[in-house]
Specification:
The chain is α/β, with parallel strands linked by helices. The protein has two domains: 111 residues, no CATH class; 127 residues, Rossmann fold, CATH 3.40.50.620. Helices cover 44% and strands 11% of the residues. The protein is built from nine helices and five strands. It has a five-stranded parallel beta sheet with strand order 3-2-1-4-5, sandwiched between helices. It is globular and about 55 Å long.
Length: 271
């Protein structure tokens, strides 16, 4: 069955379609052997629930195997997490969320980069940062997920409208409207910046707390290490907040999928 939202991972056919559609960009030579995610937090959760998996240690898996294995692993985790987790389990779940949502104190930067979404919260945070003079330009990235309606408004155009409504000048906004995934956000946007002859030395990354780490790791992979990245989280719905996300299946899937997607990105040499 085809996906209709981001709570589920793509099946083999959809994953192949995504990989065939996404933008291409070379990883800097100095970063080819570097990987930026750490999987200690999710491995600690697996150990606590006595779940055995080599997903986060077997570097011979390909991206299709990782996604398939991750989907099976996630189902086991959901069954255990939703069944009255003990105090230690909650501490480990908190630590996993803290790792994903770590952020920085931003300094004035060349670009405020906003990962696309259908909710206004990331654009609202970007406008706030821009008005605080923490970015010269705002770049919004996002077409539509592959499972979205073909005639849906692109995430980037939606965010541009919201930013203008918040008082940001249209001339300060750069839009990238073709990307369909987070890695594609990064590659497509960096390609566009190259075309525009914009080469930032510092970037503020605006994302939801639970997806902040993955976006940062992919940017780190595709940027020269001299570029400074500042992570700033937008608000998120109460069901996605640290104290609530592990209480229902949908949000457990969304949050823990971040670890599976990061692992797939590492195996595909994108993070």
């Amino acid at each position: 069955m085809a996906r209709t939202n981001n709570a589920h991972l793509p099946d083999a056919n959809e994953l192949s379609s995504i990989l065939d559609t996404e933008a291409v960009r070379d990883v800097p030579t100095s970063n080819i052997s570097l990987h930026f995610p750490d999987f200690t937090a999710i491995e600690n959760i697996l150990a606590h629930f006595d779940i055995t998996s080599d997903l986060f240690t077997n570097n011979r898996l390909d991206i299709h195997q990782a996604v398939r294995q991750g989907d099976e692993l996630l189902q086991l985790l959901i069954e255990r997490i939703l069944h009255n987790p003990d105090k230690q389990a909650i501490q480990l779940l908190d630590a996993a969320y803290d790792y994903l949502s770590e952020q920085d104190v931003p300094k004035p930067s060349d670009v405020i980069f906003v990962f696309g979404s259908k909710t206004p919260l990331r654009a609202e945070k970007a406008a706030e940062l821009y008005k605080a003079q923490l970015g010269k330009k705002i770049m919004v990235s996002g077409g539509n997920p592959i499972y979205a309606s073909a005639d849906a408004q692109s995430e980037a155009s939606l965010y541009k409208q919201l930013l203008i409504e918040k008082g940001v000048s249209a001339g300060a906004i750069i839009t990238e409207q073709a990307s369909i995934t987070v890695p594609d956000n990064v590659r497509s946007s960096l390609n566009l910046l190259d075309t525009l002859n914009i080469h930032p030395t510092s970037v503020v990354l605006v994302n939801s707390p639970y997806s902040q780490r993955r976006g940062w790791a992919i940017f780190k992979k595709f940027l020269d290490q001299s570029v400074t990245l500042y992570r700033v989280n937008s608000a998120c719905g109460p069901e996605y907040q640290k104290e609530n996300w592990y209480k229902q299946e949908h949000t457990v899937r969304v949050v823990l999928n971040e670890y599976i997607k990061m692992r797939a990105s590492v195996l595909y040499n994108n993070a």
